[in-house]
Amino acid sequence: MLDTTHPHNYSYITKHLEIHILGGIKFNNLERMRVTLSIQKPKNHNVLRHSIDLYNDNTIERLVRKVAERIEIGTSVVRQCLQNLTSELEQYRIDQIDKERQENENYIRELDTKEKQVATKFLKSNDLLQKTNELIGKSGVIGEETNRLLMYLIFTSRKTNNPLHCISLGSSGVGKNTSTK
Asked: Is the pLDDT of residue 115 over 50?
């Protein structure tokens, strides 16, 4: 059974083998599962350490033979343990990715009291659009004051029941709707 309580040293212990995944696993690059393994018989001091991609069948077969020879255990036992370990690591990785995605979807940043006061004051200002346009300019969108404000209004309208649609933005050619109905 896979034990992931220590984030940098997972353990997978069976009746025949004790395997540690040193450094854990990466949750990106789902097309490979590169790990560093420490493999030994339970309660034995003869340890084999090896870095490998568990999705590479050729290197797995070489590792199976190496482990069987060095630790003196059958190749079928080693192969089965590595296949089971890979399956459990895959499931763990999928579960962790799903958990992280759900946490990100449910995350809502709460403003503290001072931030709420500043935001409320800004939103109640008489020249809100002008100030917003100036801040967009300060953020790096230089020039095209009318277009950048229009872009801001269109983008933020997506949160409303009746979002705005892209229209012609003048002579720059940016965002022109060329479809005819």
From this structure: yes
